[in-house]
Amino acid sequence: MKIRPAEHGDIPGMVHLIGHYASEGLMLPRSSNAIAAGLAEYLVADVVGEVVGCGALQQYSDDSAELYGLATHPEHSPRGTGSALVEALIEKARTANIARVFALTLVPVFFQKMGFHTVQHNDVPLKVWKDCVVCPKFGNCDEIAMLLEVGVPVVSHSRQPALFKAL
Ligand SMILES: CC(C)(COP(=O)(O)OP(=O)(O)OC[C@H]1O[C@@H](n2cnc3c(N)ncnc32)[C@H](O)[C@@H]1OP(=O)(O)O)[C@@H](O)C(=O)NCCC(=O)NCCS
After folding, report:
1. CATH fold label, 2-163
2. What is the mean pLDDT of each run of 10 residues along the chain (167 residues)?
3. What whole-number distance in Å separates Cα of residue 117 and Cα of residue 54?
4. How far apart are CA 167 and CA 155, in angstroms?
5. How many angstroms is it from 13 CA to the middle of ligand 1?
6. Domain ranges of the chain
7. Does residue 60 have its Cβ closer than 6 Å to ligand 1?
8. pTM
9. What is the pairing mode between strands 50-61 and 64-72?
């Protein structure tokens, strides 16, 4: 499996993957057009040409970005695909000198394992003011806001030392 930037030919597979989980209410659906518009933000997991995972990083401010659109194929993705995508997206953030990566998620345990910690929705104000205010669930949101301070070493999980540079 390799993690690489998404290409136009990957879009149908990405729409299908995200749509699968959106139909279960686990993530927001994304159209081909929406993915195409943000294609540069996406990485995919590729197993001999098949897209078995995707995820994206959208910069919100000079020092913060949202990790979104994370999904792995329920049957075809090898174990570790989601972690590999998140690690690559964190590296992308680090390269862009982004200090804080946040996610809104229904799977906090996965993100905790990647070093994120739970915060209040008010701690990610740009997201709240850009997207949440137009969401039908605004005021009744069941997603958990999680934040990772990129570059801060976290030692509570065996994966962490490889992910974070010591200050
Ligand atoms: C969440 C998701 C991306 C994880 O991908 P994955 O390829 O299964 O993750 P990995 O194999 O790298 O798992 C890493 C660890 O997280 C755990 N994990 C994975 N999915 C989990 C979940 N839904 N709940 C709790 N823990 C989870 C794994 O057990 C593993 O733990 P371990 O290292 O102790 O063995 C994938 O399950 C998915 O696509 N879920 C549906 C869509 C979704 O909720 N996306 C997140 C939107 S913000």
Report:
1. Aminopeptidase (3.40.630)
2. 97 96 89 97 97 96 93 96 98 94 94 96 75 73 91 51 39
3. 22
4. 13
5. 19
6. 2-163
7. no
8. 0.89
9. antiparallel
